[in-house]
Structure formats: structure tokens, C-alpha cells
Design brief:
The longest helix has 20 residues. The chain has eight helices and 32 strands. It is of the alpha/beta class. The protein is elongated, with a radius of gyration of 30 Å. Strands 10-7-9-8-12-11 form a six-stranded mixed beta sheet. A six-stranded mixed beta sheet has the order 19-16-20-25-24-21, sandwiched between helices. The structure holds adenosine monophosphate and magnesium ion. The site of adenosine monophosphate (AMP) has 18 residues, from loops.
Length: 434
């Protein structure tokens, strides 16, 4: 079968005959270039999911919606607030009356109570509680702390400027009836679930989760439930990937471990094609038994890149098999984690219809000098401690990209730019969230 390798450059996919995979050209991109290639494909995926409605939509109970992606916007079913809301306990009155002198207390109004005595008249005040609807005629709420009240009258406790509108949120100031309060494409978090509840949405229309195939490759791999022989390794990548897929809003579909064999690898990839995205781990390096790229080539894949100038994770592969994207993630466990976070995670989120698909980066002050060889963008396991003053970050000592004990002490990855030879203690640096 004639196979083709496609070269991605300057927005184009250039095909190159590669009947002999050994002669296939490698496409190694800088981190930023690789990222932009993934983002372009991710936006096509989102377009397909959302605008072309390829991703199905399901209704879930509001309580089950956190973590899901909103498919149909949540709209205000009435003005918010629905009435002019008192934001303090105090007295509702006319601002100018209050400046002029004492006011007669016409009644008391609690949150949840309707005022039935008509508009407040000149010289009157209503004792009001936070969350109550300010009666007509009042244009301010003076805080209870700022007044003295006795014998049915209230006056300012001392000289104080009170402005019209003070401590009142006008009806509709937050949202008007019909306004979009939670937009489509937004991942439901704490604020979104509360905002939807406030709009009376007992159910939300959310996108179905994209199904993400996990194919771990390696003759040395056994499952966590098996007893390893001395030369065997437990398959940890299928677990870390499943966790990362879930937190990106996908549904992990774990396939049996694939042995290092060309035909078996191709067969397993073929079976995974029913999923929305295929993630392979291991078998993408230059070793004699690394068959992932060859198997993909044999199946007719296009490659957007076959490596990125990063560490860990340099041999990462990204491409398309018919209309299904795939990533070949390097097998070393921290390489797998980092390349998922950088590249595969954004694709999972886009496939799920989510608007925000970038990896999450934060800034922190570096605690100790870091020296590296320039030439690769590095993502080094690190521990970030944050407080209201800002965040501080420190590298975790590691034995390289297989060191899961180091990863388990980290909560992020310190980013060292490609051109840097060192980062100095005290510098503000970038950290990728884990
Ligand atoms: P590879 O990318 O296949 O060359 O593998 C690189 C290293 O990662 C080797 O030490 C493998 O044993 C290890 N490795 C590969 N796949 C996994 C996996 N699924 N779980 C844990 N370690 C793995
Ligand atoms: Mg391997």
C-alpha cells in the first residue's frame, strides 16, 4: 500500500510520498509552533462540535452539571435582581429627607416579605433587612450602624454624606430578562451552577463527553492488579491519562495494552478509531521496537508534527487518521503527563465544545536558581505555594521523566523558555498547572 506522510508548514499540509517509512521525514517544531498547530486543529474540532452540531447534547440535572460544558446558553428568566435589593440592614428612605432631619419609622420589612403599605411618603423611613425589596419612594438605604433610632423615629447618628442609590442594587442591574447569564461553551463550575440555579434552570443542556481512546504500548507493561516480574513495569500511563481526560471533560476509553509489534499496533489503532480522539503512549522514539508512527503511516495517517522542541516529551506525535485526530505521547510517565497537558488536553476540551482550551499557566516567584542547557522549552516538576501575596515556586529534584515519585511531590511544571540557560532566584517565572 502506498502511504503518505504529510508535512505541515505555514498553514499548509504538504504531502510527501513515504512508501518506505524509514525514509519518512521528521517534523520537529518549536513548542510555540506545535502549540499553534494543535490550537488550529482544536478550533476546527470545536467548530464541528458546536456550530455543525456534531457533538450530541444531553440534559442533566443541575446538581450533576459541574464539570460539563454548556451546550445551550442559560438565560435570565427575570430581571436580576428581580426587585431593587437592599444590600445592608438599615433604613430605606429618601436621601434628601434624611439629610433634613429625623424620620418617622413607617414599618419593618424583612427579606422575603412583600411591602403592602404603598410608597414611602416624605419624612418616612422603613426599617429594612438585607435582601428585602426596597419600597417605592425610597432612594437609599442607610446602614443601621449609621443611625440612631428611638420612639418610632430614626436620624443620622452623626454628620455623614448619604448618596442617592446607596446600598440599593436596582432591579435588572445585574442582568435583564432574556440576557445570557451562562454562555454556551462554558465549563460549569461553582459560579455557573449558582448562576443557573438563580435563573431557575433545574436541568442544563450539556455536550456529551468526547470518548478518548487510551492505547498504552509496551512489552514490559503489566496492569496494576498483576504481580510484576523483575523486568516488568506497571502501566501507570493509562491511569494518569484517564485522570487527565476526565478533568478535561472527556470520557476515557482504555484499551488493552498493545504489545510492541507493528501488526498488533495497527490493529489496535484501527479498533480505537470509533473514539473521538486516539491517545497512544510509548513507542514513538527511535528504538527498534517503537512501532507507533509506522503503524499510523501504514493506516494512511497524516502527521502534523513528529516531535516538539520540549523536555520532557520531545518525541510527541500529532496527526490525523481520516477525520480522527491522534497523539502519540512518549511513554515516560512525566512526558506523557506534560504532553497531554500541553497538547492533548486542549484537543479534548475543544472536542467537548469548551471555549477555553489553553493549558493553564500561572506566574510565581522562583525560590532557587535553575540551570539548563538551552534549546528546548522545559517543563520541570515543581511545587507552587500560593498566598494572597502571590505564588512562590521551587523545583522538585528528579531522576528524569520516568520519576513518578518526584511527580507525586509536584503540583505544577516550571516552564524554562527555549533560549534560557538559567533562571535566577527571585525572578517571576511561568508555571503550568498540573
Ligand atoms: P517508550 O516511550 O515506549 O520508549 O517508553 C519510555 C519509558 O517509559 C520506558 O522506560 C517505559 O517502560 C516507560 N513506559 C512506557 N509506557 C508506560 C506506561 N504505560 N506506564 C508506565 N511506564 C511506561
Ligand atoms: Mg516502549
Amino acid at each position: 500500500m502506498e502511504t503518505a506522510l504529510f508535512l505541515f508548514c505555514e498553514n499548509r499540509v504538504v504531502s510527501r510520498s513515504a512508501a518506505n517509512p524509514d525514509e519518512s521525514p521528521s517534523i520537529v517544531l518549536s513548542y510555540e509552533h506545535a502549540m499553534s498547530v494543535v490550537q488550529r486543529q482544536a478550533s476546527h474540532a470545536r467548530e464541528d462540535a458546536v456550530r455543525l452540531k456534531k457533538r450530541s447534547v444531553e440534559k442533566v440535572a443541575l446538581a450533576d452539571a459541574p464539570g460539563r460544558v454548556v451546550a445551550e446558553p442559560v438565560v435570565a428568566d427575570r430581571d436580576q435582581p428581580p426587585f431593587p435589593r437592599a444590600t445592608r440592614d438599615g433604613f430605606a428612605c429618601r436621601c434628601e429627607d434624611l439629610q433634613a432631619g429625623g424620620l418617622r419609622i413607617a414599618g419593618q420589612l424583612r427579606a422575603g416579605e412583600a411591602w403592602t403599605l404603598g410608597a414611602i411618603r416624605p419624612g418616612e423611613a422603613v426599617e429594612i433587612m438585607t435582601g428585602a425589596s426596597v419600597p417605592h419612594g425610597a432612594d437609599c438605604v442607610v446602614m443601621v450602624e449609621h443611625v440612631s433610632a428611638s420612639d418610632g423615629r430614626v436620624s443620622l447618628a452623626g454628620p455623614r454624606e448619604i448618596a442617592v442609590g446607596e446600598n440599593i442594587i436596582p432591579a435588572g442591574a445585574e442582568a435583564r430578562i432574556g440576557d445570557v447569564v451562562v454562555s454556551a461553551g462554558r465549563r460549569v463550575g461553582i459560579a455557573e451552577v449558582a448562576a443557573a440555579a438563580a435563573c431557575g434552570a433545574g436541568q442544563l443542556a450539556v455536550f456529551s463527553r468526547p470518548r478518548i481512546a487510551i492505547l498504552a504500548t509496551g512489552d514490559e507493561l503489566i496492569d496494576v492488579t498483576e504481580k510484576p516480574l523483575a523486568h516488568q513495569i506497571r502501566n501507570s500511563n493509562s491511569y494518569s491519562l484517564a485522570a487527565q481526560i476526565r478533568s478535561a471533560g472527556g470520557e476515557p476509553v482504555a484499551f488493552p495494552v498493545v504489545r510492541d509489534d507493528l501488526a498488533r499496533t495497527a490493529k489496535a489503532i484501527g479498533e480505537a478509531r470509533s473514539c473521538d480522539l486516539i491517545l497512544l503512549t510509548g513507542g514513538v522514539s527511535m528504538g527498534r521496537y517503537d512501532f507507533v508512527e509506522q503503524a499510523l503511516l501504514a493506516l494512511g495517517a497524516e502527521f502534523y508534527f513528529t516531535g516538539a522542541q520540549i523536555q520532557p516529551g520531545k518525541p510527541v506525535v500529532f496527526g490525523m487518521l481520516d477525520d480522527t485526530c491522534f497523539f502519540g505521547l512518549p511513554g515516560n510517565p512525566i512526558s506523557t503527563m506534560v504532553t497531554f497537558a500541553l497538547f492533548a488536553g486542549p484537543m479534548v476540551r475543544a472536542l467537548g465544545g469548551e471555549n477555553e482550551d489553553r493549558p493553564h499557566f500561572t506566574m510565581a516567584r522562583l525560590e532557587e536558581d535553575v540551570r539548563v542547557k538551552p534549546g528546548l522549552t522545559r517543563f520541570l516538576p515543581a511545587r507552587v505555594e500560593s498566598s494572597f501575596r502571590g505564588a512562590r515556586v521551587k523545583r522538585i529534584a528528579w531522576q528524569g521523566s520516568g520519576d513518578l515519585a518526584a511527580a507525586a511531590k509536584a503540583n505544577g511544571f516550571l516552564v524554562v523558555p527555549e533560549t534560557a540557560e538559567s533562571l535566577t532566584a527571585g525572578e517571576i517565572v511561568t508555571v503550568m498547572e498540573m
